[in-house]
Design a protein that fits this description.
The chain is an alpha+beta fold and 465 residues long. It has 17 helices and 12 strands. Strand 1 and strand 2 form a beta hairpin. Helix 1 packs across helix 2 and helix 9 crosses helix 15. The longest helix is centred in the middle third of the chain and has 37 residues. Bound molecules: flavin-adenine dinucleotide.
Length: 465
């Protein structure tokens, strides 16, 4: 397994990665991206401490609901880069099982890659979302044929791909880009049915980073985002050569959606697990700030917090149901239940902004205007800030100020904006979660129940339904 230091050194591999108009020469030393690298390195160390027989816990394939439950916890604790790596590996394993009948020629390569990735203890990011051009048109009808990643040249040794994948979490902090079609493809779109593993430092790959990490000199006012921000990558493939052994699908349009569908399930399970903790965090902040404000017992505040508690509990229940009702796939791996995973992820995402509204409503305007830690330290202002930010003898002004900093950082500043959009879009967006939930719900069963209650089961229309 890699140590944190070895991970940092591994990033110095000639990769072309950019931030705010400049090429980044030293990722670990970069003022905005460096802390994210430190965080990944620190999580490598933690995973090292959890190793079993020298193997990373990330190489465990769960074979029962119990193992799946413990993997969800381990992966969540191991941080975003471990999460995207684990879900990539599980996606490949899931997809291999699903394409084995129709496209067996790729199975050996997929399995060899998984084994090698686990041995090298690398980080893999998920490149699915294409630039997509005009959303109403398929790839072949786009004005620019590069709107979806596609093959532009073929030889006996491999293919050359061109296009871009956007919003890729942690792209610059990983070692490999799992590049897969974003949707189903049709006959004629063979060049777009391409799935491949592309090294981050492959010639022709360029990654433009964005980050909500705080730019302020004093990051103490950003207690959460200063340590947990992870950049997104705008990944460009400028005629990148991919050798045959790294190609996992090449022209089989009928199988194009298999990878994205396999990923969706694991990605949303990860999203659901993060949301379950995130919802508890919002409840915790709401209760703490209500108590600090002297309003913990006030009726309308308790009402709002009760609603937040119900929200958090429903999400947790969906996570639990997704794991408990997991299914064992053809290769013995346990898969989270699709219905509960998607319904829970959707519920968490769709109601998130209402929960944040409750928190802001309860907390008050100091979410935005609480003075900084430096103001607390300034001899001219510190005691005055403490005096006026305090509410009672047992509620220290500094404690309350810092609570407000955490609430602002999490919900009302750059990271807060990031969460507001990410919860809705990541994992394929609300629309995708609605479609998958509907597909896995027993709609016929519900119709039968309704007909039975209406006494219409034996009517001709009822029998048809
Ligand atoms: C912070 C963050 C991290 C992310 N991480 C990753 C990642 O690691 N890897 C990755 O691959 N992706 C990632 N994503 C991308 C995410 O999955 C997409 O943002 C999401 O799928 C929506 O795609 P889009 O952004 O192109 O928006 P659009 O597809 O333009 O969607 C905008 C709206 O238009 C609707 N729409 C789009 N097309 C149609 C159509 N044909 N007909 C009807 N309605 C349509 C959508 O339902 C949605 O309501 C991330 C996104 C964010 C914000």
């Amino acid at each position: 397994m890699l140590t944190g230091e070895q991970y940092k050194t591994s990033l110095d591999d000639g990769r072309a990665t950019f931030f705010e108009g400049e090429r980044v020469k030293d990722l670990p030393g970069h003022p905005v991206l460096g802390p994210a690298v430190d965080h990944v390195a620190e999580r490598y160390e933690w995973l090292g401490s959890q190793a079993v027989d020298g193997r990373s816990p990330l190489s465990t394939v769960p074979q029962s609901a119990e193992q799946l439950r413990s993997m969800v916890e381990v992966v969540h604790h191991a941080g975003l880069m471990a999460h995207v790596t684990y879900t990539s590996i599980m996606t490949l394993a899931t997809a291999a099982g699903r394409i084995a009948g129709a496209a067996p020629q790729y199975i050996e390569g997929i399995n060899a890659f998984i084994e090698d990735a686990q041995k090298r203890d690398i980080r893999i990011t998920q490149c699915i979302t294409d630039a997509k051009g005009d959303r109403s048109r398929p790839p072949l009808k786009q004005d620019d044929p590069d709107a979806y990643v596609h093959v532009v040249d073929r030889s006996k040794d491999g293919v050359v791909v061109r296009g871009a994948k956007l919003h890729i979490s942690g792209a610059s902090l990983g070692h490999e880009l799992m590049t897969i079609p974003t949707k189903a493809m049709k006959a004629g779109e063979e060049d777009y049915a391409i799935a491949a593993m592309i090294p981050v430092n492959a010639p022709g790959v360029k990654i433009i980073n964005t980050s909500y990490a705080p730019r302020h000199a004093d990051t103490r006012d950003f207690p959460i985002s200063s340590t947990s921000a992870c950049p997104e990558g705008f990944v460009i493939f400028e005629d990148v050569f991919v050798p045959n052994e790294r190609i996992f699908l090449n022209g089989e349009v009928a199988q194009a959606a298999v990878f994205a569908h396999s990923l969706g399930l694991w990605e949303r399970l990860g999203g659901l697990s993060a949301m379950a903790d995130g919802a508890d965090l919002l409840v915790g902040f709401a209760q703490l700030i209500a108590e600090s404000n002297g309003l913990g017992g006030e009726g309308h505040i308790k009402e709002k917090i009760s609603e937040m508690i119900i929200h958090a509990t429903v999400i947790r229940a969906c996570l639990e149901a997704a794991v408990t009702h997991s299914e064992i796939g053809p290769m013995g791996a346990a898969f989270p239940n699709e219905l509960y995973t998607n319904a829970g992820k959707y519920t968490g995402a769709a109601n998130y902004s209402l929960m944040v509204r409750h928190l802001h409503d309860i907390a008050g305007g100091s979410v935005l205007t609480a003075p900084s830690v430096a103001d607390l330290e300034n001899p001219e202002t510190g005691d005055l800030v403490r005096k006026y930010m305090g509410t009672r003898n047992d509620v220290d002004g500094e404690y309350r100020t810092r609570l407000f900093h955490a609430i602002r950082d999490l919900t009302a500043d750059a990271m807060g904006g990031w969460y507001a959009v990410t919860n809705i879009q990541a994992g394929g967006g609300l629309y995708a979660q609605r479609i998958v939930t509907r597909r896995h719900y027993d709609l016929d069963g519900a119709k039968r129940q309704a007909l039975a209650v209406a006494g219409l089961l034996d009517s001709p229309a009822g029998a048809k339904g």
